[in-house]
Amino acid sequence: METKEFPAWLKVLLKEKFFNACLEHEDVKKNEKNILCIDCCLSICPHCLPSHNSHRLLQIRRYVYNDVLRVEDGSKLMDCSLIQPYITNSSKVVFINERPHSRQFRGSGNFCYTCDRSLQSPYVFCSLSCKISDVIMRQRGLSGFLHVCNVLQLTDEGATTSTTPSSTLEATESGGDDGGVDMFWCQALACTASTEVVRKKRSSLTTTCRRVTTAVASANTEAPANFFNRRKNTPPQRAPLY
């Protein structure tokens, strides 16, 4: 039930499984439900847009196989400050829900107030849900957290399904246990570049060696022929008799 303190659309945002196939357009390509209609409190796919053109629409994206939203879009509806952002497709995004910890890491820096995930300064929340839990615990409500937003439209990018693989995404400003993900992709790209350079050098070296070998073989083939021709036309020289 929708209340002033906790609206129904926010419950759907935190609980909905986005990027599942839309049942109304199951036979159409790009039918992943990656849009949240704020007015209908419903997740929809791009093919459902004609029925929601005049509604407030929030684009949901994917980053490292998790649901995220752009800081620019989310800030129109709620306070997204102090949540650690990441960059994908040149846009800052924040995770919607808390992610499982891949490993226990206790180093220097900040930690999420809710789940103790390692963060970069000055951020103190790893996801939107962690901040909401902290705000409710401290303030006994969401007063001051939610913003009044009467108009929320999709950008040109939002009209298409955003299912870019995580391998093509740029992870910047990340810290703690996310640093391993960033280092992994950086090393992978570096290895790929190095392999291409080595291949080009080997190819160039092989071509050069083939040219030198061919030239040497031709010279070796012609030298004996000239030598034998010269011996054939020259009268034999006998040793003098004493």
Radius of gyration: 33 Å
Q: Strand order, biggest sheet?
A: 4-5-7-6
Low-confidence stretches: 158-177, 179-195
Beta fraction? 5-15%
Q: Assign a percent range to the helix content.
A: 25-40%
Average pLDDT over all residues: 76
Shape: elongated
For the sheet with most strands, the description reads: 4 strands, antiparallel
**Helix tally?**
4
Q: What is the H-and-E element order?
A: HEEEEEHEEEEHH
Number of strands: 9
How many angstroms separate the termini? 132 Å
Q: In a nutshell, what does this entry contain?
A:
This protein has 242 residues and is of the alpha+beta class. The chain contains four helices and nine strands, in the order αβββββαββββαα. A hairpin with a 2-residue loop joins strand 4 and strand 5.
Helices and strands in order, then pairings?
Layout (H helix, E strand, L loop, with lengths): L7 H8 L19 E3 L4 E3 L12 E3 L1 E3 L2 E5 H4 L11 E3 L2 E5 L14 E2 L6 E2 L8 H12 L39 H55 L9
Protein name: PLATZ transcription factor family protein
InterPro entries: PLATZ (IPR006734)
Pfam families: PLATZ (PF04640)
